[in-house]
């Protein structure tokens, strides 16, 4: 039998219940938007957690093609995996810094640690002594989040005893804002001031080192938060960095495939725990995306979906299962919904942030929860 004229669907693609579309041109446009906004500061890119679930090599390579040269990951392993995908002129910084015994791996893979504590400084110093040369590193200070970074006390010790940095060539001084998504929050001002104090305190020991404070939301606070480099992650991927209208382009579309539809009579329930019971004759579509695909269970009874060409809200009803969810598609009447056809869970009529809010979470968590089970389609120029 000849298949020469067979243009039917790829059966392997149809295996997956969800289709995740990633628009690299939108990602690039988001990068340019942020980069242009912070001039003369540099714009880095945060690609931790596998590029917020989109694929770190895919997004980092495209951002490199847009001119980005500074990339942040959280973990050593993420940096090692990313290194071969980027050119020698790109820096990869590892936010967690070295755990005891891991410093040599940073050096071997040309990764820059973010040194967060006196212990991590000592780790990096020990390697420097062993290799007999100075080693670059970023240094982080804690300006109020109590999460990562050197304390004020640590900084005064370094300022008083600059030999504590022997062997280390600091190439970036950084900290992180805790409340930047709330522009009026008093903590923003406090953290900016404290960061300036930290810079001043270390100037004697370090000289003038480039400084970085703002992530996505910090960029929206304006120039006084930008310093020499900004570090957006979420906004690159389409998450709204501010409280107002979203200036970013959507990068991700998530569609689920229809498994089957049915009409149910009043009194009939849908899904585990019978948490939804039809009050009227109701048409239910089973969509093959569940919480194992990042469509969080907490969104049961609160989410909505839409057809690609029609903004009518189709409510998620009943509990979300591991592999599927139920949609009330009564509003579509008897309109055909063929098995395998696609319905948007995140799409033109359903922004990522709204889908996340319905599940009681934020776009960040929704993206990083997407997982590996979707069929992935990439739009836009790959680099
Ligand atoms: C995750 C992270 C970022 C990026 O934050 P977004 O809000 O996603 O832009 C920047 N800096 C640090 C230290 C981070 O941990």
TrEMBL record:
Residue ranges of domain Alanine racemase C-terminal in the record: 251-379
Gene3D superfamilies associated with the record: Alanine racemase (3.20.20.10), Lyase, Ornithine Decarboxylase, Chain A, domain 1 (2.40.37.10)
This protein's GO CC annotations: cytosol
Binding site for substrate: 147, 322
Catalytic activity: L-alanine = D-alanine
Positions of modified residues (N6-(pyridoxal phosphate)lysine): 48
Protein's job: Catalyzes the interconversion of L-alanine and D-alanine. May also act on other amino acids.
Protein name per the record: Alanine racemase
């Amino acid at each position: 039998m000849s298949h020469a004229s067979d243009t039917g669907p790829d059966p392997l693609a149809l295996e997956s219940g969800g289709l995740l579309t990633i628009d690299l041109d939108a990602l690039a446009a988001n990068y340019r938007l942020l980069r242009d906004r912070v001039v003369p500061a540099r714009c880095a890119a945060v690609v931790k957690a596998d590029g917020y679930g989109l694929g770190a090599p895919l997004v980092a390579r495209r951002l490199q093609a847009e001119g980005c040269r500074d990339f942040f990951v959280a973990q050593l392993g993420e940096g090692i995996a990313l290194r071969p995908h980027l050119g020698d002129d790109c820096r990869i910084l590892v936010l967690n810094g070295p755990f005891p015994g891991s410093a040599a791996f940073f050096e071997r893979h040309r990764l820059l640690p973010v040194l967060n504590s006196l212990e991590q400084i000592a780790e990096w110093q020990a390697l420097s002594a062993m290799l007999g040369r100075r080693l670059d590193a970023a240094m982080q200070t804690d300006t109020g989040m109590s999460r990562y970074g050197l304390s004020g006390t640590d900084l005064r010790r370094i300022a008083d005893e600059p030999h504590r940095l022997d062997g280390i060539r600091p190439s970036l001084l950084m900290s992180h804002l805790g409340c930047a998504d709330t522009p009026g929050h008093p903590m923003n001002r406090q953290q900016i001031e404290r960061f300036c104090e930290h810079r001043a305190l270390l100037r004697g020991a370090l000289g003038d080192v480039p400084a970085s404070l703002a992530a996505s939301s910090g960029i929206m606070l304006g120039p006084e938060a930008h310093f020499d480099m900004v570090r957006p992650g979420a906004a690159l991927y389409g998450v709204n960095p501010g409280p107002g209208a979203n200036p970013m382009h959507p990068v991700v579309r998530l569609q689920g495939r229809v498994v089957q539809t049915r009409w149910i009579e009043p009194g009939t329930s849908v899904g585990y725990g019978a948490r939804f019971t039809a009050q009227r004759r109701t048409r239910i579509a089973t969509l093959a995306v569940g919480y194992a695909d990042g469509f969080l269970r907490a969104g049961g009874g609160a989410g909505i979906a839409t057809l690609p060409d029609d903004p009518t809200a189709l409510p998620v009803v009943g509990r979300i299962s591991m592999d599927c969810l139920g949609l009330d598609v009564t509003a579509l009447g008897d309109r055909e919904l063929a098995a395998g056809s696609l319905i948007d869970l995140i799409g033109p009529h359903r922004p990522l942030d709204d889908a996340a809010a319905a599940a009681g979470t934020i776009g960040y968590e929704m993206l990083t929860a997407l997982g590996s089970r979707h069929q992935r389609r990439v739009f836009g120029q790959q680099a």
